[in-house]
Amino acid sequence: MITYEEFVMVHTLYRQGYSIRAIARMTGLDRRTVSKRLKEDKLLPRKPRVYKSKLDPYKEYIKKRIAQGLP
Question: Helix/strand/coil (H, E, C) string of the chain?
Fold first, then answer.
């Protein structure tokens, strides 16, 4: 994930005439990341991924067992 400061730096350096490769070298970012971020007007927050648990089908059963005090 790129920080807001890196995002601003990428845009500033590009406006100053630096190439995408030069910006990538200076910032330590991949050139594809630099290119992708230059296409964006503002940095959008990423949505966290929601992973399904392998225990999801059994959660109600487990809760009942715990409530009953059974192992």
Answer: CCCHHHHHHHHHHHHCCCCHHHHHHHHCCCHHHHHHHHCCCCCCCCCCCCCCCCCHHHHHHHHHHHHHCCC
Give residue 44's pLDDT: 82
Q: How far is CA 53 from CA 46, 50, 56, 57, 58, in A?
A: 21, 10, 5, 9, 10
Kindly give, in sequence order, each residue whose CB lies less than 8 Å from that of residue 55, ignoring residues fewer than 6 positions away: 62
- Which fold does the domain 1-43 belong to in CATH? Arc Repressor Mutant, subunit A (1.10.10)
How is the chain split into domains, by residue range? 1-43
Mean pLDDT rounded to a whole number for the chain? 92
